[in-house]
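INFO batch 0412 | record 1 of 1 | parsing
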Amino acid sequence: MAATSEKCRKCKPTYQRTDETRARLSACLAGKPKPWLRGLKRPKVARKIAEWWTPERREAKREELLGRNPSARYHGLSARSAARLVVRIGRCERCQHDGTDSRLGVHHRNRDKHDQRLENLEVLCHRCHMQEHAKAGETGWDRYHQKRREKASR
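INFO prediction complete | emitting C-alpha coordinates
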Protein backbone atom coordinates (compact mmCIF):
# COMPACT_ATOMS: atom_id res chain seq x y z
CA MET A 1 0.00 0.00 0.00
CA ALA A 2 1.26 3.47 -0.84
CA ALA A 3 2.45 5.79 1.89
CA THR A 4 -0.02 8.48 0.78
CA SER A 5 -3.76 8.39 0.53
CA GLU A 6 -5.24 9.31 -2.83
CA LYS A 7 -8.85 8.78 -1.83
CA CYS A 8 -10.24 12.15 -2.89
CA ARG A 9 -7.77 14.68 -4.24
CA LYS A 10 -10.50 17.19 -5.10
CA CYS A 11 -11.87 17.38 -1.57
CA LYS A 12 -8.67 17.47 0.40
CA PRO A 13 -4.98 17.17 -0.20
CA THR A 14 -3.25 13.88 0.42
CA TYR A 15 -1.49 13.37 3.72
CA GLN A 16 1.54 11.41 4.75
CA ARG A 17 0.85 8.38 6.92
CA THR A 18 3.57 8.83 9.45
CA ASP A 19 4.17 7.06 12.74
CA GLU A 20 2.85 10.17 14.50
CA THR A 21 -0.42 10.04 12.49
CA ARG A 22 -0.86 6.35 13.25
CA ALA A 23 -0.19 6.91 16.98
CA ARG A 24 -2.75 9.74 17.10
CA LEU A 25 -5.39 7.59 15.37
CA SER A 26 -4.67 4.65 17.71
CA ALA A 27 -5.04 6.95 20.73
CA CYS A 28 -8.41 8.21 19.44
CA LEU A 29 -9.75 4.68 18.93
CA ALA A 30 -8.26 3.08 22.04
CA GLY A 31 -10.88 1.61 24.35
CA LYS A 32 -13.78 2.15 21.95
CA PRO A 33 -15.92 -0.93 21.27
CA LYS A 34 -15.62 -2.54 17.87
CA PRO A 35 -19.06 -4.10 17.30
CA TRP A 36 -18.12 -5.38 13.85
CA LEU A 37 -15.75 -7.83 15.50
CA ARG A 38 -18.54 -9.52 17.46
CA GLY A 39 -21.57 -9.06 15.19
CA LEU A 40 -23.26 -6.72 17.66
CA LYS A 41 -24.10 -3.85 15.33
CA ARG A 42 -27.81 -4.61 15.53
CA PRO A 43 -28.60 -6.32 18.84
CA LYS A 44 -32.38 -6.16 18.30
CA VAL A 45 -32.07 -8.09 15.05
CA ALA A 46 -29.70 -10.60 16.65
CA ARG A 47 -32.21 -11.14 19.49
CA LYS A 48 -35.07 -11.70 17.02
CA ILE A 49 -33.02 -14.24 15.09
CA ALA A 50 -32.07 -16.06 18.31
CA GLU A 51 -35.71 -16.16 19.41
CA TRP A 52 -36.82 -17.42 16.00
CA TRP A 53 -34.54 -20.49 16.17
CA THR A 54 -36.57 -22.58 18.58
CA PRO A 55 -35.50 -26.17 19.33
CA GLU A 56 -38.31 -27.41 17.05
CA ARG A 57 -37.07 -25.25 14.16
CA ARG A 58 -33.50 -26.41 14.72
CA GLU A 59 -34.61 -30.04 14.59
CA ALA A 60 -36.69 -29.40 11.45
CA LYS A 61 -33.67 -27.78 9.77
CA ARG A 62 -31.48 -30.71 10.83
CA GLU A 63 -33.99 -33.16 9.32
CA GLU A 64 -34.13 -31.11 6.12
CA LEU A 65 -30.33 -31.16 5.80
CA LEU A 66 -30.28 -34.87 6.57
CA GLY A 67 -32.83 -35.44 3.80
CA ARG A 68 -30.70 -33.48 1.33
CA ASN A 69 -27.47 -35.27 2.19
CA PRO A 70 -27.97 -38.44 4.25
CA SER A 71 -24.30 -39.38 4.01
CA ALA A 72 -23.09 -36.09 5.52
CA ARG A 73 -20.58 -36.52 8.32
CA TYR A 74 -22.36 -34.64 11.07
CA HIS A 75 -26.00 -33.95 11.86
CA GLY A 76 -26.53 -32.19 15.12
CA LEU A 77 -22.91 -31.88 16.20
CA SER A 78 -21.54 -28.77 14.57
CA ALA A 79 -17.88 -27.84 14.76
CA ARG A 80 -18.87 -25.26 17.36
CA SER A 81 -20.70 -27.86 19.47
CA ALA A 82 -17.74 -30.22 19.22
CA ALA A 83 -15.38 -27.43 20.27
CA ARG A 84 -17.63 -26.61 23.25
CA LEU A 85 -17.59 -30.27 24.30
CA VAL A 86 -13.80 -30.41 24.03
CA VAL A 87 -13.43 -27.22 26.09
CA ARG A 88 -15.90 -28.44 28.71
CA ILE A 89 -14.09 -31.76 29.22
CA GLY A 90 -10.68 -30.24 28.57
CA ARG A 91 -8.57 -33.41 28.42
CA CYS A 92 -8.29 -36.77 26.70
CA GLU A 93 -10.64 -39.22 28.38
CA ARG A 94 -8.17 -42.09 27.92
CA CYS A 95 -4.69 -40.78 28.72
CA GLN A 96 -5.75 -37.60 30.57
CA HIS A 97 -3.60 -35.47 28.23
CA ASP A 98 -4.63 -31.80 28.28
CA GLY A 99 -4.22 -31.17 24.55
CA THR A 100 -1.14 -28.94 24.72
CA ASP A 101 1.00 -31.13 22.44
CA SER A 102 -1.72 -32.96 20.52
CA ARG A 103 -5.10 -31.58 19.55
CA LEU A 104 -8.24 -32.90 21.17
CA GLY A 105 -11.13 -34.19 19.08
CA VAL A 106 -14.49 -35.91 19.36
CA HIS A 107 -14.73 -39.67 18.79
CA HIS A 108 -17.98 -41.59 18.24
CA ARG A 109 -17.81 -44.74 20.35
CA ASN A 110 -20.23 -46.75 18.17
CA ARG A 111 -18.65 -45.40 14.91
CA ASP A 112 -22.02 -43.92 13.82
CA LYS A 113 -21.46 -40.25 13.04
CA HIS A 114 -25.21 -39.68 12.97
CA ASP A 115 -25.50 -40.72 16.63
CA GLN A 116 -24.80 -37.49 18.52
CA ARG A 117 -25.89 -38.58 22.00
CA LEU A 118 -23.44 -37.42 24.66
CA GLU A 119 -22.92 -40.97 25.93
CA ASN A 120 -21.72 -41.91 22.43
CA LEU A 121 -19.21 -39.04 22.23
CA GLU A 122 -15.74 -39.20 23.72
CA VAL A 123 -13.02 -36.55 23.78
CA LEU A 124 -9.67 -38.02 22.73
CA CYS A 125 -6.26 -36.60 21.92
CA HIS A 126 -5.13 -37.19 18.34
CA ARG A 127 -2.80 -40.01 19.37
CA CYS A 128 -5.48 -41.97 21.25
CA HIS A 129 -8.00 -41.31 18.48
CA MET A 130 -5.68 -42.76 15.83
CA GLN A 131 -4.84 -45.74 18.07
CA GLU A 132 -8.56 -46.43 18.53
CA HIS A 133 -9.22 -46.46 14.79
CA ALA A 134 -6.04 -48.43 14.03
CA LYS A 135 -7.05 -51.11 16.56
CA ALA A 136 -10.34 -51.51 14.71
CA GLY A 137 -8.57 -51.67 11.33
CA GLU A 138 -10.08 -48.39 10.14
CA THR A 139 -6.90 -46.68 9.02
CA GLY A 140 -4.38 -47.14 6.26
CA TRP A 141 -4.60 -47.99 2.58
CA ASP A 142 -6.62 -51.17 3.13
CA ARG A 143 -9.43 -49.16 4.68
CA TYR A 144 -9.16 -46.52 1.94
CA HIS A 145 -9.61 -49.11 -0.80
CA GLN A 146 -12.38 -50.86 1.14
CA LYS A 147 -14.33 -47.59 1.30
CA ARG A 148 -13.80 -47.01 -2.43
CA ARG A 149 -15.13 -50.50 -3.23
CA GLU A 150 -18.17 -49.89 -1.00
CA LYS A 151 -18.86 -46.59 -2.71
CA ALA A 152 -18.49 -48.11 -6.19
CA SER A 153 -20.89 -50.97 -5.38
CA ARG A 154 -23.71 -48.59 -4.36
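INFO post-check: Residues 51-126 form one domain.
INFO record closed
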